[in-house]
Every structure is written in C-alpha cells, then in structure tokens.
Amino acid sequence: MAMPLRRRVAWSQGLSSQGESAMPSTPAILLSGYTEEGYGAGPGLSLFEVLADGTVGEMLRKSSAVLNPSFLSAGGWLLLAVEELPEGNVIAVDPLTLDVLGRAPTLGADPCHVALVDGQVWVANYSSGTATVLALDGLLGNDASAPQLLSHSGSGPVVERQGESHAHQVTPTPWGSVLVADLGADRVDEYAQAGDTRTLLRSAQLPPGTGPRHVALKGDFLLVAGELDGCVHVLQRTPSRATSPTARDDYFWHWLFKTPLAPTVAEVQAAEQFYPSHIQLSEDGNKLYAAVRGPDTLVTLDVTGLAGSGTDEDADNEAAPTPPRFLAEISSAGTWPRHFAVGHNKIYVANQLSNNVAVFELGPDGVPVAGAVQSLDYGSPTCILLA
User: Fold this and answer.
1) Which of 226, 223, 318 is nearest to 237 (CA)?
2) Does residue 200 sit within a domain?
3) Is the pTM of this model over 0.85?
4) Adjacent-strand bridge partners of 258
5) Residue 189, domain member (yes or no)
6) Does 133 map to a domain?
7) What CATH number should be reported for the domain holding residue 168?
C-alpha cells in the first residue's frame, strides 16, 4: 500500500499561497479525463501513486464529481480544475480526497486552462474567447467580489478555426504579468495584475495562421506552439529604445523565427493532420518537448541557442540567438497526445483518443527513449499533473 499523503500539498508546479513547501510523503500523479458524451468516456479525476522507478502505481482515489475536467493546475494547497462545458466552471478540489471544495461559473464557454496567480484564479474560455479572473477566496466562498471577464477580439486566415478569438492558455511570467494565448487571433496578450485590476500591457503578434495554443518561457524568450501551422515560434522580450535600453518594464515582443515540429517543413505541410498540443521545457531548460496530434509524436528540440536576456546593458555584445534545432521524434504510443508532464526522469503522455497514458524514459541526453516503458489504461485523458 502507498504511504499516506500529507494533508496539504505544495505541488511541484507551484508553492502554496501560504508559503508552505511540504511535499507528499510519496510521489503522486493526478489524471483528468473527459466524462461527457460527445467529448469522451473518462472517469473524471484520479490520483495514482508513482513508484520508485517512476512508473505509475496503484490508484489511490477517483472522483466523478468534476464534469469534463480538461485541465488541472496547482492552486497552492488546492487542486484547480476546469469543467469544459458550454457554460463552464472552475473548481477547487482537495488534492488528496478529490472532494470538491468550491465551484464557480467562468462566465464563458468551454474553459480549457487554469492557473493561480498571486491569489487570483485565471481561466481561458476557448469557445467564447475570454479570460476569467476571480479571487481564490471567492472560489472557496470566502469573498463575494465578482469575477472579472477579459474579452478579446480578432480572427485569422484559417476560417474554420479562426473565425473569432479563442483563448487557449493562461501563463504567469516570472516578472509578474500573465500571458493569454489566443489561437483564433494569432496573438499572445500580456496583462498586468495589481490587486483586483487587470490591464492589457502589450501583445505578441504571431504570423497569420499560427494558432497559438500553449507557450513556454525561457528567460526573455517566448516559445509558442502553433496548433495550426505545426511549428514552434520564438519571440524575444525586447526593450523599447525610446526610453532606456535597460528598462525591464517597457518592452515589446519581437518575433524571431519558427521551427517545424518535424524533421522538415515539407513533412508538416504534407500531413493530413498535424496539430501540436502541449510544449514544455526540460528541467535544465536546454530542450523543448512537444506533443503533436495527427502523426502522434513526441518531439524534442534543442533550444540552447536561446541565450541572453535581450534587456541587459551588454545585450549588444551577446551572441545572437539561433533557432531551436530539431533533435528527435518518437511515437506517443497512442492516439492524439493532448498533454504530457515531465518528472522522475520520465515523460507521461496523455493519449486522448486511444484512452491511455504512456510513460517514457528520458535518456542520459534528456531525449525521450522510443518505446513506452508503461501504458496505463485511462479513459479520454486530458491532463497530467505530478506532485
């Protein structure tokens, strides 16, 4: 049997809002899966132990109390989840018992991502193209303040997917702002957050037809997964020379280059379906992992050419950044890899349409080794969170 977990958990993706740093007494993994007809046939939420070798052990808990959970996130000592429904909700969950502690409407349709930023819960509503911000205390019923709805506009050239704004991810930055990736508008918007006030600072504009889905930050470089063009785009946080070359609060996002998530651009263009989903940096920041639906691959890029801040006094003396370099691709050991998590020298991949989570070993060079060391049956997996 697994050892009992501690009551309060600071997940590996974020510390408790109370500043706690306790970890589970045994490693664990949380899985979510679509539950509703037309979306999938998953169990909702499940908590599994992680064994000493990094593979997934026995199920510790499961719950169907959250409908269509499409994304999970660390919320201090809580687990945050979104219910991807026409009238969406954001949920606070006890990560050990999986009991629902709070539920609030997102005021938008089909929420698909959630993050906690300085006590505020941010949600991306895909179909309505909005972002919702509400206090964590409000989600728990301790604050009566109304949620704030951030509306977006815009469209792109891929008519069937970009007829309007589609917010897909909310991401806090190390310098205190929040990024909202907009697949429909080919844009990543950046907001300042001060108490209950959110202000649009600037936008990172992507080439038409990119379809920004998920992002990753490496220093002052923004890496963006283009769901619609099959590439990773790189933008650099660049100071506005009109004020001061060292001003870190006055800058713009300068698009640099893109790298296909296949050995060649021709392979991307020839594919009937080629839809990148999640991207994430390796623990040392030297590699970028990406899941691609269609060819059902897990791709590794070398991003060591992205160095320097772009805002330092000696920026002119720094080596010019170079594009990410394709290293390897392996089968995801399933169909439609929607999400993955990295930890325990493994990559855990949620293959949504084949109803399995595949576990891969990371080689000494940090590149996933072909051939899953484990395949766990799980209905319509949507998100993986390690603790």
Assistant:
1) 223
2) yes
3) yes
4) 233
5) yes
6) no
7) 2.40.10
Per the structure, the complete domain to which residue 235 belongs is given by 159-229+231-266
Residue type (1 letter), 64: S
Phi, psi of 317 (to 5 degrees): -95, -5
Per-residue 3-state assignment (H helix, E strand, C coil) for the chain: CCCCCCCCCCCCCCCCCCCCCCCCCCCEEEEEECCCCCCCCCCCEEEEEECCCCCEEEEEEEECCCCCEEEEEEECCEEEEEECCCCCEEEEECCCCCCEEEEEECCCCCEEEEEEECCEEEEEECCCCEEEEEEHHHHCCCCCCCCEEEECCCCCCCCCCCCCCCEEEEEECCCCCEEEEECCCCEEEEEEEECCEEEEEEEEECCCCCCEEEEEEECCEEEEEECCCCEEEEEEEEECCCCCCCCCCCEEEEEEEEEECCCCHHHHHHCCCCEEEEEEECCCCCEEEEEEECCCEEEEEECCCCCCCCCCCCHHHCCCCCCCEEEEEEECCCCCEEEEEEECCEEEEEECCCCEEEEEEECCCCCECCCCCEEEECCCEEEEEEC
Say if 93 falls within a structural domain: no
As for how many domains the chain has, the answer is 1
Tokens 């890899």 correspond to: 337
51: exposed, middle or buried (Cβ count in 10 Å: 0-12, 13-18, 19+): middle
Encode the chain (387 residues) as per-residue pLDDT tens digits.
Answer: 333 333 333 443 433 333 333 334 589 999 999 999 999 999 999 999 999 999 999 999 999 999 999 999 999 899 999 999 999 999 999 999 999 999 999 999 999 999 999 999 999 999 999 999 999 999 998 876 789 999 999 999 999 999 999 999 999 999 999 999 999 999 999 999 988 889 999 999 999 999 999 999 999 999 999 999 999 999 999 998 755 544 556 899 999 999 999 999 999 999 999 999 999 999 999 999 999 999 999 999 999 999 854 444 445 556 899 999 999 999 999 999 999 999 999 999 999 999 999 999 999 999 999 999 999 999 999 999 998
